């Protein structure tokens, strides 16, 4: 009976198989419906959350308010993070000018002057009628000043700051920020004046006095209100005295004293003027080396005089100190002759040794500081020697001491027939 029920053609077995198949299909559809329901619910919740976050992200006013709270607390890094994102998401929002302003101020407080300048420039260009536009115009020049280089380096950014601050003062002369703009404008000009002063001082240190005068005077003309002007005027007079322009130096110093400067400047001007006058009384037209600068106004100048081959008449080494040259225009020949201090009778006799080194003449200083040439064969008057020295200027327009004028003729002394009588070198009396 049992085996008969399991036969393939048994209707009971066939009905059981059909029932089992229907149950399987029903279970599949139930699982499918439940799965689709879960997927739809999850996707709906995700979409709702995304929409909520999206709406919150683009709430520009709320983001700006949050940034302002952090700005008041001094958390400028958080302010930059919030407003940088808000700037790109709220391009056409009405609070965009406020976003740019506070973002620029956050950069400025973080010592990022270049980034701050970019934000202020965008604010000026996109929102010229904004209430923040006036301060943004000032901050542009302020940022240029803060990002400028020290005086020893390139000053193009400093010049940009001067231009931008000047434009701000021209457009907003009555602004509450005008005083601050003038302060930074003065600092920018002072930086350029310092650079010009250092350049002039460099030329003075390497003994390029004419170039130094040019730079000092350019500083005085371009920056008349600078604190370096008075020092530049003193340095100009000092350099003029070094290049045989004592009259100009004296005029400059006299003008400084006439303006009644401070005590220190007046003392320097008086000392320098006394030094220039002292050199003029000695018949000298210029300073000779750095020893003259440090000696002080009351110290006597070295009386060493160079010979023809660079040696001094006294035989001592003078380093790189040039030879002293008399200024024939400053010496009154009538007074000298009447006093009798420049004649052969009052001057001690000097005997020139035989010329064994190829030197043809020696230059020596007289008692009054002027020079005379002691030739071993022919005696010359001091005035004549000084006159010939003026006819043969050296590289600076002056005659090197001890060098005879180049007249194209052979020297008066013949090397083949030296003078045997040393007394013949004595200068004859007039």
What's a concise summary of this model?
With 430 residues, the protein is an all-alpha fold. The protein is 57% helix and 2% strand.
Which secondary structure elements does this structure contain, and how are they paired or packed?
Blueprint: H1 2-5, H2 11-57, H3 60-72, H4 76-89, H5 96-109, H6 113-126, H7 133-146, H8 156-171, H9 178-205, H10 209-222, H11 229-242, H12 246-258, H13 263-281, H14 290-295, H15 333-339, E1 361-365, E2 371-375, H16 382-391
Antiparallel strand pairs: 1-2
Helix pairs in contact: 3-4, 4-5, 5-6, 6-7, 7-8, 8-9, 9-10, 10-11, 11-12, 11-13, 12-13
Characterise this structure.
The protein is mostly helical. The protein has a domain at 2-42. It contains 16 helices and 2 strands. It has helices at residues 2-5, 11-57, 60-72, 76-89, 96-109, 113-126, 133-146, 156-171, 178-205, 209-222, 229-242, 246-258, 263-281, 290-295, 333-339, 382-391, and strands at residues 361-365, 371-375. It has a two-stranded antiparallel ribbon with strand order 1-2. Helix 7 (133-146) packs antiparallel against helix 8 (156-171) and helix 9 packs antiparallel against helix 10 (209-222). It starts with a helix and ends in a 39-residue tail after the last helix. Residues 288-430 have low confidence and may be disordered.
Characteristic key phrases:
mainly alpha; 57% helix; rod-shaped; disordered C terminus
Query: Which parts are unreliable, with pLDDT below 50 for 5 consecutive residues or more?
Result: 288-430
Which class of secondary structure composition applies to the elements? mainly alpha
Q: How would you spell out the order of helices and strands?
A: HHHHHHHHHHHHHHHEEH
- Which word captures the global form? rod-shaped
Question: Please, what is the oligomeric state?
Answer: single chain
Radius of gyration: 47 Å
Q: Identify the strand order in the major beta sheet.
A: 1-2
Q: What is the percent of helical residues? A: 55-70%
What is the terminal-to-terminal distance? 179 Å
- Mean pLDDT, rounded to whole units? 71
């Amino acid at each position: 009976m049992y085996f008969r029920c399991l036969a393939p053609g048994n209707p009971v077995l066939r009905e059981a198989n059909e029932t089992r198949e229907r149950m399987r299909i029903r279970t599949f559809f139930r699982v499918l419906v439940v799965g689709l329901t879960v997927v739809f619910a999850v996707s709906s919740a995700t979409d709702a959350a995304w929409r909520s976050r999206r709406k919150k992200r683009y709430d520009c006013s709320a983001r700006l308010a949050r940034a302002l709270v952090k700005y008041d607390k001094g958390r400028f890094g958080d302010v930059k993070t919030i407003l940088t994102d808000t700037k790109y998401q709220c391009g056409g929002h009405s609070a965009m000018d406020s976003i740019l302003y506070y973002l620029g101020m956050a950069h400025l407080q973080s010592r990022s002057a270049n980034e701050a300048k970019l934000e202020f420039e965008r604010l000026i260009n996109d929102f010229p009628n904004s209430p923040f536009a006036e301060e943004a115009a000032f901050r542009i020049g302020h940022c240029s000043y803060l990002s400028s280089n020290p005086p020893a380096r390139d000053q193009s950014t400093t010049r940009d700051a001067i231009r931008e601050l000047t434009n701000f003062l021209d457009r907003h002369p009555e602004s509450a920020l005008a005083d601050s703009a003038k302060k930074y404008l003065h600092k920018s000009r002072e930086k350029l004046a310092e650079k010009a002063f250092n350049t002039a001082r460099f030329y003075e240190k390497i003994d390029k006095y004419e170039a130094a005068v040019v730079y000092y005077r350019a500083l005085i003309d371009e920056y008349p209100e600078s604190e370096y002007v008075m020092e530049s005027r003193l340095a100009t007079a000092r350099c003029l005295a070094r290049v045989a322009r004592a009259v100009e130096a004296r005029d400059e110093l006299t003008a400084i004293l006439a303006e009644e400067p401070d005590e220190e400047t007046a003392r320097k001007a008086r000392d320098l003027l006394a030094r220039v006058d002292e050199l003029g009384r000695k018949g000298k037209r210029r300073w000779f080396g750095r020893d003259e600068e440090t000696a002080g106004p009351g110290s006597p100048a070295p009386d060493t005089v160079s010979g023809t081959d660079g040696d001094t008449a006294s035989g001592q080494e003078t380093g790189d100190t040039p030879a002293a040259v008399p200024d024939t225009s400053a010496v009154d020949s009538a007074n000298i002759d009447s006093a009798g201090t420049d004649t052969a009778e009052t001057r001690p006799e000097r005997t020139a040794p035989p010329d064994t080194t190829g030197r043809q003449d020696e230059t020596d200083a007289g008692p009054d500081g002027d020079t005379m040439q002691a030739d071993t064969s022919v005696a010359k008057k001091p005035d004549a020697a000084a006159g010939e020295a003026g006819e043969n200027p050296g590289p600076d327009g002056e005659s090197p001491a001890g060098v005879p004028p180049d007249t194209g003729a052979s020297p008066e002394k013949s090397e083949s027939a030296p003078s045997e009588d040393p007394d013949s070198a004595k200068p004859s009396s007039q």
